[in-house]
TrEMBL record:
Gene of this entry: upp
Protein residues bound to 5-phospho-alpha-D-ribose 1-diphosphate: 78, 103, 130-138, 199
Pathway in which the depicted protein is active: Pyrimidine metabolism; UMP biosynthesis via salvage pathway; UMP from uracil: step 1/1
Keyword Metal-binding in annotation: no
Taxonomy of the source species: Bacteria, Pseudomonadati, Pseudomonadota, Gammaproteobacteria, Alteromonadales
Domain Phosphoribosyltransferase, chain residue ranges per copy: 6-207
Organism of provenance: Thalassotalea litorea
Protein name: Uracil phosphoribosyltransferase
A Pfam family that the UniProt record links to this protein: UPRTase
Length: 208
Protein backbone atom coordinates (compact mmCIF):
# COMPACT_ATOMS: atom_id res chain seq x y z
CA UNK A 1 0.00 0.00 0.00
CA UNK A 2 1.37 3.37 -1.00
CA UNK A 3 1.05 5.78 1.95
CA UNK A 4 1.43 9.57 1.62
CA UNK A 5 1.47 11.71 4.75
CA UNK A 6 1.07 15.37 3.85
CA UNK A 7 3.85 17.54 5.25
CA UNK A 8 2.61 20.95 4.06
CA UNK A 9 2.68 23.63 6.83
CA UNK A 10 -0.97 24.54 6.16
CA UNK A 11 -1.94 20.92 6.76
CA UNK A 12 0.06 20.71 10.00
CA UNK A 13 -1.43 24.03 11.18
CA UNK A 14 -5.05 23.20 10.38
CA UNK A 15 -4.77 19.73 11.87
CA UNK A 16 -3.47 21.30 15.09
CA UNK A 17 -6.51 23.59 15.21
CA UNK A 18 -8.77 20.59 14.63
CA UNK A 19 -7.37 18.70 17.63
CA UNK A 20 -8.48 21.44 20.02
CA UNK A 21 -11.61 20.09 21.75
CA UNK A 22 -12.91 23.62 22.39
CA UNK A 23 -13.61 24.65 18.78
CA UNK A 24 -17.20 24.99 17.55
CA UNK A 25 -18.98 22.48 15.31
CA UNK A 26 -18.93 25.11 12.56
CA UNK A 27 -15.16 25.62 12.87
CA UNK A 28 -14.57 21.86 12.99
CA UNK A 29 -16.53 21.42 9.74
CA UNK A 30 -14.70 24.28 8.06
CA UNK A 31 -11.28 22.86 8.95
CA UNK A 32 -12.29 19.37 7.77
CA UNK A 33 -13.32 20.90 4.43
CA UNK A 34 -10.04 22.80 4.08
CA UNK A 35 -7.95 19.72 4.92
CA UNK A 36 -10.01 17.64 2.49
CA UNK A 37 -9.24 20.09 -0.31
CA UNK A 38 -5.52 19.64 0.35
CA UNK A 39 -5.79 15.84 0.51
CA UNK A 40 -7.72 15.90 -2.77
CA UNK A 41 -5.06 18.07 -4.41
CA UNK A 42 -2.43 15.44 -3.53
CA UNK A 43 -4.57 12.41 -4.34
CA UNK A 44 -5.63 13.70 -7.77
CA UNK A 45 -2.05 14.23 -8.92
CA UNK A 46 -2.13 11.15 -11.17
CA UNK A 47 -5.38 11.74 -13.02
CA UNK A 48 -4.67 11.28 -16.75
CA UNK A 49 -4.78 14.25 -19.13
CA UNK A 50 -5.02 14.54 -22.90
CA UNK A 51 -4.30 17.37 -25.33
CA UNK A 52 -7.22 19.20 -26.90
CA UNK A 53 -7.29 21.97 -29.48
CA UNK A 54 -9.10 25.18 -28.57
CA UNK A 55 -9.40 28.67 -30.01
CA UNK A 56 -7.95 31.50 -27.93
CA UNK A 57 -7.74 35.27 -28.42
CA UNK A 58 -4.45 34.84 -30.29
CA UNK A 59 -5.31 31.76 -32.37
CA UNK A 60 -5.57 28.00 -31.90
CA UNK A 61 -3.61 26.24 -29.16
CA UNK A 62 -3.36 22.88 -27.38
CA UNK A 63 -4.50 22.61 -23.78
CA UNK A 64 -4.42 19.73 -21.31
CA UNK A 65 -7.72 18.39 -20.04
CA UNK A 66 -8.43 15.58 -17.59
CA UNK A 67 -9.68 12.64 -19.61
CA UNK A 68 -11.39 9.30 -19.09
CA UNK A 69 -14.45 8.35 -17.11
CA UNK A 70 -15.35 10.76 -14.32
CA UNK A 71 -13.95 9.78 -10.91
CA UNK A 72 -16.27 8.68 -8.13
CA UNK A 73 -15.97 9.82 -4.54
CA UNK A 74 -17.18 7.46 -1.83
CA UNK A 75 -18.09 9.11 1.48
CA UNK A 76 -18.42 6.54 4.27
CA UNK A 77 -21.45 7.63 6.30
CA UNK A 78 -21.64 9.44 8.52
CA UNK A 79 -18.33 11.13 9.11
CA UNK A 80 -17.13 10.83 5.50
CA UNK A 81 -19.87 13.30 4.51
CA UNK A 82 -17.87 16.00 6.26
CA UNK A 83 -15.12 15.66 3.64
CA UNK A 84 -17.39 15.68 0.58
CA UNK A 85 -17.59 19.45 0.02
CA UNK A 86 -13.80 19.67 0.05
CA UNK A 87 -13.37 16.92 -2.55
CA UNK A 88 -16.10 18.38 -4.79
CA UNK A 89 -14.51 21.82 -4.60
CA UNK A 90 -11.60 20.48 -6.65
CA UNK A 91 -13.37 17.70 -8.59
CA UNK A 92 -16.87 19.14 -9.06
CA UNK A 93 -17.93 16.67 -11.73
CA UNK A 94 -17.14 13.57 -9.62
CA UNK A 95 -19.90 10.98 -9.32
CA UNK A 96 -20.90 10.11 -5.76
CA UNK A 97 -21.14 6.55 -4.44
CA UNK A 98 -22.35 6.27 -0.85
CA UNK A 99 -21.56 3.54 1.67
CA UNK A 100 -23.09 3.63 5.15
CA UNK A 101 -21.14 1.86 7.86
CA UNK A 102 -20.78 2.16 11.59
CA UNK A 103 -18.49 0.48 14.04
CA UNK A 104 -20.00 -1.76 16.72
CA UNK A 105 -19.02 -0.07 19.99
CA UNK A 106 -18.03 -3.34 21.73
CA UNK A 107 -16.50 -5.49 19.01
CA UNK A 108 -15.30 -2.63 16.71
CA UNK A 109 -16.62 -4.72 13.81
CA UNK A 110 -18.06 -2.65 10.93
CA UNK A 111 -21.80 -2.93 10.21
CA UNK A 112 -22.95 -1.93 6.71
CA UNK A 113 -26.37 -0.25 6.49
CA UNK A 114 -26.41 1.56 3.13
CA UNK A 115 -24.91 1.09 -0.30
CA UNK A 116 -25.59 3.02 -3.50
CA UNK A 117 -22.74 2.92 -5.99
CA UNK A 118 -22.36 4.48 -9.42
CA UNK A 119 -22.00 2.26 -12.49
CA UNK A 120 -18.77 1.32 -14.28
CA UNK A 121 -16.62 1.46 -11.15
CA UNK A 122 -13.93 -0.52 -12.96
CA UNK A 123 -13.33 2.41 -15.34
CA UNK A 124 -13.18 5.13 -12.70
CA UNK A 125 -10.69 6.49 -10.22
CA UNK A 126 -12.34 5.83 -6.84
CA UNK A 127 -11.69 8.20 -3.91
CA UNK A 128 -12.88 6.82 -0.56
CA UNK A 129 -13.26 9.48 2.14
CA UNK A 130 -13.51 9.00 5.91
CA UNK A 131 -11.80 11.23 8.48
CA UNK A 132 -10.66 8.36 10.75
CA UNK A 133 -8.75 5.13 10.11
CA UNK A 134 -8.71 3.50 13.56
CA UNK A 135 -8.74 -0.34 13.66
CA UNK A 136 -9.10 -0.29 9.86
CA UNK A 137 -12.19 -2.52 9.93
CA UNK A 138 -14.47 0.06 8.30
CA UNK A 139 -12.15 0.82 5.39
CA UNK A 140 -11.26 -2.84 4.81
CA UNK A 141 -14.97 -3.69 4.52
CA UNK A 142 -15.63 -0.61 2.34
CA UNK A 143 -12.87 -1.52 -0.09
CA UNK A 144 -13.96 -5.19 -0.11
CA UNK A 145 -17.40 -3.96 -1.25
CA UNK A 146 -15.99 -1.60 -3.88
CA UNK A 147 -13.74 -4.32 -5.32
CA UNK A 148 -16.67 -6.77 -5.43
CA UNK A 149 -18.38 -4.19 -7.66
CA UNK A 150 -15.36 -3.94 -9.94
CA UNK A 151 -13.33 -1.01 -8.56
CA UNK A 152 -9.67 -1.28 -9.50
CA UNK A 153 -8.04 2.09 -8.93
CA UNK A 154 -8.71 3.08 -5.33
CA UNK A 155 -7.31 5.92 -3.24
CA UNK A 156 -8.32 6.47 0.39
CA UNK A 157 -8.30 9.95 1.94
CA UNK A 158 -8.29 10.13 5.74
CA UNK A 159 -7.46 12.97 8.11
CA UNK A 160 -5.92 10.81 10.83
CA UNK A 161 -4.67 7.22 10.70
CA UNK A 162 -3.42 4.89 13.44
CA UNK A 163 -0.29 2.81 12.82
CA UNK A 164 -2.27 -0.33 13.77
CA UNK A 165 -5.03 0.44 11.26
CA UNK A 166 -2.58 1.23 8.48
CA UNK A 167 -0.79 -2.09 8.98
CA UNK A 168 -4.06 -4.02 8.88
CA UNK A 169 -5.38 -2.17 5.82
CA UNK A 170 -2.09 -2.69 3.96
CA UNK A 171 -2.28 -6.45 4.60
CA UNK A 172 -5.82 -6.68 3.19
CA UNK A 173 -5.47 -4.19 0.35
CA UNK A 174 -1.80 -3.76 -0.66
CA UNK A 175 -2.83 -2.40 -4.08
CA UNK A 176 -4.46 0.85 -2.92
CA UNK A 177 -3.10 4.34 -2.26
CA UNK A 178 -3.67 6.13 1.04
CA UNK A 179 -3.39 9.86 1.73
CA UNK A 180 -3.46 11.16 5.29
CA UNK A 181 -2.82 14.41 7.13
CA UNK A 182 -1.31 12.49 10.04
CA UNK A 183 -0.20 9.08 11.27
CA UNK A 184 -0.89 9.35 14.98
CA UNK A 185 0.60 7.52 17.98
CA UNK A 186 -1.65 4.56 18.78
CA UNK A 187 -5.15 3.22 19.44
CA UNK A 188 -6.51 3.19 22.98
CA UNK A 189 -8.43 0.27 24.54
CA UNK A 190 -11.71 1.73 23.22
CA UNK A 191 -10.43 1.76 19.64
CA UNK A 192 -9.95 5.55 19.59
CA UNK A 193 -6.94 7.15 17.94
CA UNK A 194 -4.52 8.95 20.32
CA UNK A 195 -4.20 11.91 20.13
CA UNK A 196 -6.68 11.79 17.21
CA UNK A 197 -9.73 14.01 17.06
CA UNK A 198 -12.15 12.20 19.36
CA UNK A 199 -15.35 11.02 17.67
CA UNK A 200 -15.16 12.78 14.30
CA UNK A 201 -18.75 11.93 13.32
CA UNK A 202 -20.13 13.40 16.56
CA UNK A 203 -18.00 16.52 16.19
CA UNK A 204 -19.10 17.05 12.56
CA UNK A 205 -22.78 16.45 13.22
CA UNK A 206 -22.95 18.05 16.68
CA UNK A 207 -24.24 14.87 18.31
CA UNK A 208 -21.85 14.46 21.24
O1 LIG B 1 -11.16 2.04 11.58
P1 LIG B 1 -12.36 1.71 12.39
O2 LIG B 1 -11.98 1.09 13.73
O3 LIG B 1 -13.35 0.88 11.66
O4 LIG B 1 -13.05 3.07 12.83
C1 LIG B 1 -13.21 4.14 11.98
C2 LIG B 1 -14.65 4.41 11.70
O5 LIG B 1 -15.28 4.87 12.91
C3 LIG B 1 -15.92 6.13 12.65
O6 LIG B 1 -17.24 5.97 12.24
P2 LIG B 1 -18.40 5.61 13.29
O7 LIG B 1 -18.54 4.13 13.45
O8 LIG B 1 -18.19 6.38 14.57
O9 LIG B 1 -19.69 6.09 12.54
P3 LIG B 1 -20.17 7.58 12.25
O10 LIG B 1 -19.37 8.03 11.07
O11 LIG B 1 -21.60 7.41 11.94
O12 LIG B 1 -19.92 8.42 13.46
C4 LIG B 1 -15.08 6.72 11.53
O13 LIG B 1 -15.72 7.74 10.84
C5 LIG B 1 -14.77 5.52 10.69
O14 LIG B 1 -15.78 5.22 9.74
O1 LIG C 1 -10.61 7.88 17.12
C1 LIG C 1 -11.63 7.52 16.50
C2 LIG C 1 -11.88 6.19 16.16
C3 LIG C 1 -13.01 5.88 15.46
N1 LIG C 1 -13.87 6.86 15.14
C4 LIG C 1 -13.65 8.16 15.46
O2 LIG C 1 -14.45 9.03 15.12
N2 LIG C 1 -12.54 8.46 16.14
MG1 LIG D 1 -18.65 8.21 14.99
Amino acid sequence: MQISQLSHPLVRHKLGLLRNKNISTQKFRQLVTELSIMLTYEASRHLPTEYQSISTWCGDTEIEAICGKKPTVVPVLRAGMGMLDGVLTLVPNARISVIGMYRNHKTFEPVIYFEKLVKALEQRMVYVIDPMLATGGTLIATIDTLKQHGAKQIAVLVLVASPEGLERLAKHHPDIQLFTASIDEHLDQNGYIVPGLGDAGDRLFGTQ
